[in-house]
Amino acid sequence: MQKAMAGRLDQRVEWNRNTAEDAAVSEAVRQMLQTELGVDETLQIALLNNRNLQATYEDLGIAQADLVQAGLLRNPILSFERRFSGQAAEFDAVQDFVEALLIPLRKRVAGAAFELAKLRVAGVVVSFAVDVRAAFYRLQGAEQMLAMRRAVVDSTEASAELSRRLRVAGNITELALRMEERLASQARLDLATADEDVVELHERLNVLMGLWGSDTAWTLARGLPDLPAREPSAQGLESQAVAQRLDMAAARQDIIAAAERLGLTSISRLVPGGSVGFHYEHEPDPFFSIGPSLHWVLPIFDWGQGAVPRDRAVLRQSQQRYIALAIEARSQVRAAYSRMRTARDRAEFYRQMVLPLQGDILRQAQLQYNAMILGPLQLLQAKQGEIDTGRDYIEAQRDYWVTRTELERALGGRFDNAMANAEVPPATLFNGSAKGGAHIHTDTEVDQ
Q1: Which of 122, 275, 347, 403 could share a disulfide with 396, CB 3.0–4.6 Å?
Q2: Within a domain: residue 22?
């Protein structure tokens, strides 16, 4: 497992098997919960503490037990017969020798299944890590949204209170006052919605981290991180995904396992069964007999007419599924990369263009309202526009980090592994080449 995780996860993976080390793991989780959690700490807690993940690790124990069982001889059969009408008695001891001859092949089949189980469990862990990171960024974005909504409530209520005083003094109309109060009321409703979103996403992370009771009172680091200055180049990402995705490795191992099963079936159909033994028979004195026994299963009616074609079909099925998965993996990388670049362009466009523009609009609207050039409706629209722009920018930042983690799922490993070919992403949104940044080099071979 640790070998499979190398280059895919920086965090520690532990299988809880009721050992002395489990107490140390629990203490490490408690210590991390006392600090402000970043994405790495959150993921580490989830990997150590999620019970569904621990249950998945038991698949390794099951496959390992099957491997041990495949190397064991069947127990011998003992039989005794006594005829009470006289003094006759018989004793037999029989051992299946064909099973003993097939043990090496059975161990190869079980060994291939064990390797397949390890790859599948490792794939579940990598996918789980992506789920945790995505949930972290969603909650972090929701908390940032909640902080913005609180600031909006404070601002709109202060503005509404000022408008009430101005109305008493006769400096503004009743309509202007009511519109300010309406904006403040809407801000409170939006705050309640944002608060509920935080609660729901907090609980989602509680489940992923396997926490309950007093352990759920953890806090996250404040604010979504800034967008990185550089992004990996798209060239070669498809081949990287095919090479490092664990579901692709599992599909390759499934072909090996199917071939091993076919080999076992092809041989065992010719020698379906046989045993050797020891026979002792006692008749009334002085008669008795002793000697070996041999039992052989003759493949007359059943000589594998169904079993061998079935295993051949399973092998072909595994091969076709591998090719289909490689095609799907490449498509997922292209789509995920395109979504990430679009999300990045959107966030950058908001930061560089829309936010400054909306700030200028509100300042100009306030100046013209003070000069009685604009009415209260236009000023209210400008204020609402600033609120909406702030919301959209937070959502754009969140979407970037979520789509980045989804690209890691498509790649089958950390996005940082592709930074060798990092490039400064061009600004492509709304400049006539929106798709240019999302182009991915397509390799000629499906499984390369």
Answers
A1: 347
A2: yes
